[in-house]
């Protein structure tokens, strides 16, 4: 790039954000309860904008607090890092702003200077000239007459005479000198330097008093240790500020900026600092403010701004350097995004400016892991930098560029980390990565699926990160497949998804996007998306897989032992169908499943295992479509084949068993359903552990069955446990969480805990809507349950609103004769029974009965429930001759399906017996008097006292 002259007159760049820092500053200087001495300390990494913040705070003083005197010192200036030169500079800055005299300090400093360099005369060429009354030059001349010898002999009498002949106002100041001139003359130079801050403070206080409106800024505080790294005590270097200067200047507000926290060190030395110092971090600049800054600096290209913001990691110094680069490029050509993606050396230099070589080596090592605890720190240091003491850990983690990411785990600021990695020797860096890869891989090698913890999850992520830095293309793929398998089985799908996503992109780059290996890996991504409840994403992946497979059907690749055949296409179609089931597209799913089945049945050597898999999935589709008899036949056949091929304890058999249980539940065969669901749970807990996401689904199913079978105590236990596992293991908004919450709500509803039920249902509704959309058939059951709860709470307006929404979705998405349509029609009919609108209730319940008889059969429990409701309607309109036969038919079905001891059967029998005794003419009176009530879908006759 061509050199250009520096633009010294350019417009000052805008200051953005830091509202919290500014608010803290204003509270600090306005606080009337400030201690006699006080300090405000801001800390943050190099380049975070500490100096810019100080300038902004000074502007605030100028505009909002003009009566307040302020001066600023920067320890970046090496002459400000020791007491004597710092105080001279501070004196000069104060005197520029006000007519203040430092008589005592000037005398003490002059004696100190002469003691320090007795052979050098004090004049304008060798000594910072003092802007005091002319008499002081006489003192300097007198000091220049100091006699040399074994001991320095200062002309004390001559100095005393000069002071005694000075004007009265000057003599008054010297009369208050904290230490006698003779005492100063007897002290060594280093002893005088130690008391200079106190003498300076005495002069300051004699001028301003103890309630001054003065603010002193100190910047780059960390530089005070620059020339003393590794020499002497850490706390000794700034003792003259901490103990001698600030405490002796009451009323002054000190605002200090540095890289590292200092309050704990100051408090350790003097407990009073706990109350007298406020300490705040300067955080990374949020992206929106970084974006604002770049816009206001004239960077109009969105892609360039995006790259700079991302690369900056919130560090303003990086943003400023990028603006400089942009302006330089703009002078000769149009800037492009590619010029702004690198890590800038100036940033690295700024980060490590005050670190010694041993610290740098340690940070190079620690830039390799994403995070580290004390144990890993010690292992790495002993291996790669044994000269660095492991006992410096506590001091190391106090650096502002090191953050505690969670309890006991630390990481470097990302921009510093990137800078360290870029400027590190590549061979050395690779050695550290190899060591860490092996370290983490060993933690998860041959791990038991049931024993995986968050620690193992972190180890996998770290091992993969270091594998990417080390391994070649083929080795990386093999490592991912081998080491992620147990995590896949254990349900850590979110964790391993990025690894396969990276692998797909690598394979696309090496082999092309239509290679069959890309299809196979994309299929894995689809599986993971499906498990994570991201069905639309899974559908997109499966469609890509089918497209790749169809293009490669029958092709052979050199050096690749892989051929895509009809079986691969059939199985990909089956997988796509499963994702369509997840979003309620049942007809699309069935079409794909039938296509896959046709392909398999045309094969000469058809595999019964694949046929059984398809039968199982088709059974699930028929179940969703409400065609339970077809579903039962297919699923039972699939279970028999899979048990024979895989064994009765296989996880795939558990899946088929689970599906069969759901079908029996819909058919009203609750005992069979419970036994099958329990069997599926036992297999999964044995193979996967007690907290697997699939276990949550089994537990939730058992909770539903217990609710139906009136075992509410067990139902609540199952559903609570299911919801806890789902919340812990599924990602936010996973449909699995919604399903467990909905089932938990049903149990609460049966327990008459309507507020709890409504809370669970409404949350399930929100999750389902966010995951699947507002008209998905998966919403029907939850909407119906919400309506039922409102009905029990007698909020009939809300009840009808939710019933109607559920009915519309069910009719539009499932068909007008689906069992869910019958369920909602029946429930709306029951609502009208509650409100006494029997003319509206009758046609709805009759329509529900017709659909249930056609889809479920006339011996189904749901059919019996509708018979009861119709009987109630007939009884309430005076047609008792119609009502009793309906009640008797429903009782027979309950006895057959639920058994004589089920609460629904008992209630139905009591109802029939009561009505026979009363000759059924009084149903309406019984309801109106409260003797006969609807309780969770059951008509109950309350026993009366004689």
From TrEMBL:
This is Tetratricopeptide repeat protein. InterPro entries: P-loop_NTPase, TPR-like_helical_dom_sf, TPR_rpt. TPR repeats lie at residues 519-552, 570-603, 612-645, 654-687, 738-771, 780-813, 822-855. Keywords: Coiled coil, Repeat, TPR repeat. Residues 779-813 form a coiled coil. It comes from Methanosarcina mazei (Methanosarcina frisia).
């Amino acid at each position: 790039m061509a050199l250009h002259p520096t633009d010294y007159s350019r417009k000052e760049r805008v200051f953005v954000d830091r509202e919290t820092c500014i608010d803290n500053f204003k509270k600090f200087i306005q606080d009337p309860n400030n201690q006699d001495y006080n300090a405000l300390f801001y800390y943050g990494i190099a380049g975070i904008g500490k100096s810019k913040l100080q300038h902004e705070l000074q502007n605030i003083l100028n505009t909002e607090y003009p009566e307040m005197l302020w001066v600023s010192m920067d320890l970046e200036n090496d002459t400000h890092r020791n007491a004597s030169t710092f105080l001279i500079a501070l004196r000069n800055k104060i005197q520029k702003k006000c007519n203040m005299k430092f008589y005592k300090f000037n005398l003490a400093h002059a004696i100190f200077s002469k003691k320090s360099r007795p052979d050098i005369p004090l004049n304008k060429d060798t000594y910072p000239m003092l802007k005091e009354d002319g008499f002081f030059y006489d003192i300097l001349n007198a000091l220049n007459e100091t006699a040399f010898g074994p001991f320095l002999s200062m002309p004390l009498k001559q100095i005393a005479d000069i002071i005694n002949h000075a004007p009265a106002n000057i003599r008054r100041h010297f009369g208050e000198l904290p230490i006698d001139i003779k005492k100063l003359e007897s002290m060594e130079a280093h002893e005088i330097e130690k008391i200079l801050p106190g003498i300076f403070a005495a002069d300051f206080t004699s001028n301003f008093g103890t309630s001054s409106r003065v603010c002193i800024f100190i910047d780059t505080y960390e530089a005070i240790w620059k020339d003393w790294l590794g020499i002497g005590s850490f706390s000794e270097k700034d003792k003259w500020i901490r103990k001698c200067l600030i405490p002796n200047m009451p009323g002054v507000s000190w605002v200090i900026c540095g890289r590292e926290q200092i309050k704990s060190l100051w408090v350790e030395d003097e407990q009073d600092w706990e109350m007298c110092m406020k300490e705040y971090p300067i955080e990374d600049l949020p992206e929106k403010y970084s974006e604002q800054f770049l816009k206001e600096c004239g960077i109009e290209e969105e892609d360039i701004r995006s790259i700079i913001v991302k690369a900056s990691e919130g560090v303003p110094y990086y943003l400023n350097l990028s603006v400089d680069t942009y302006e330089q490029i703009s002078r000769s050509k149009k800037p492009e995004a590619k010029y702004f993606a690198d890590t800038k050396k100036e940033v690295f230099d700024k980060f490590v400016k005050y670190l010694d070589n041993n610290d740098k080596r340690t940070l190079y090592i620690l830039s390799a892991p994403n995070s580290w605890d004390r144990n890993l720190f010690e292992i790495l240091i002993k291996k790669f930098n044994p000269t660095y003491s492991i006992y410096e850990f506590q001091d190391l983690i106090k650096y502002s560029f090191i953050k505690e990411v969670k309890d006991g785990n630390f990481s470097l600021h990302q921009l510093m980390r990137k800078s360290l990695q870029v400027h590190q020797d590549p061979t050395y860096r690779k050695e550290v990565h190899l060591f860490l890869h092996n370290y983490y891989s060993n933690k998860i090698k041959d791990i038991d699926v049931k024993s995986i913890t968050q620690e193992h999850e972190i180890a996998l992520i770290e091992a993969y990160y270091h594998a990417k830095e080390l391994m070649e293309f083929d080795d990386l793929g093999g490592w991912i497949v081998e080491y992620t398998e147990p995590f896949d089985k254990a349900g850590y799908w979110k964790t391993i998804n990025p690894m396969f996503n990276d692998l797909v992109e690598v394979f696309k780059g090496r082999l092309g996007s239509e290679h069959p290996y890309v299809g196979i890996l994309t299929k894995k991504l689809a599986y993971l998306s499906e498990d994570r409840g991201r069905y639309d994403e899974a559908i997109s992946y499966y469609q890509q897989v089918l497209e790749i497979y169809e293009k490669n059907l029958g092709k052979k690749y050199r050096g690749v032992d892989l051929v895509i055949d009809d079986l691969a296409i059939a199985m990909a179609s089956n997988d796509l169908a499963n994702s369509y089931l997840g979003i309620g597209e049942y007809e699309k799913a069935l079409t794909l499943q039938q296509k896959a089945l046709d392909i398999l049945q045309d094969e000469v050597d058809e595999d019964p295992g694949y046929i059984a898999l398809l039968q199982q999935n088709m059974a699930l589709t028929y179940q969703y479509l409400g065609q339970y008899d077809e579903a039962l036949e297919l699923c039972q056949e699939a279970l028999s084949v899979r048990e024979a091929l895989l064994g009765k304890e296989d996880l795939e058999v558990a899946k088929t068993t689970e599906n069969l249980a759901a079908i029996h539940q819909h058919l009203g065969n609750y005992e069979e359903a419970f036994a099958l669901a329990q069997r599926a749970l036992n297999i999964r807990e044995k193979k996967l552990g007690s907290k697997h996401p699939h276990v949550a689904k089994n537990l939730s199913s058992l909770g539903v069955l217990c609710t139906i079978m009136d075992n509410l105590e067990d139902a609540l236990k199952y559903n609570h446990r299911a919801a806890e596992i789902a919340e812990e293991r599924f990602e936010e908004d996973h449909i699995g969480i919604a399903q467990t919450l909905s089932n938990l709500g049903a149990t609460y509803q049966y327990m008459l805990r309507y507020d709890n039920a409504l809370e669970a249902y409404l949350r399930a509704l929100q999750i389902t809507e966010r995951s699947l959309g507002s008209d998905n058939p998966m919403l029907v059951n939850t909407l119906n349950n919400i309506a039922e709860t409102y009905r029990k709470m007698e909020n009939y307006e809300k009840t009808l609103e939710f019933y109607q929404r559920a009915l519309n979705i069910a009719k539009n998405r499932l068909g007008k004769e689906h069992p869910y349509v019958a369920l909602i029609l029946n429930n709306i009919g029951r609502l009208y029974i509650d409100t006494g609108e029997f003319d509206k209730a009758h046609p709805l319940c009759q329509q529900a009965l017709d659909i249930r008889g056609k889809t479920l059969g006339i011996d189904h429990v749901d059919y019996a429930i509708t018979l009861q409701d119709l009987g109630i309607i007939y009884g309430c309109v005076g047609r008792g001759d119609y009502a009793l036969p309906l009640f008797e038919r429903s009782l027979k079905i309950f006895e057959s399906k639920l058994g004589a001891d089920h609460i629904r059967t008992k209630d139905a029998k009591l109802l029939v017996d009561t009505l026979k005794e009363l000759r059924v003419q009084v149903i309406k009176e019984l309801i109106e008097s409260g003797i006969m009530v609807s309780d969770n879908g059951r008509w109950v006759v309350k026993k009366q006292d004689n």
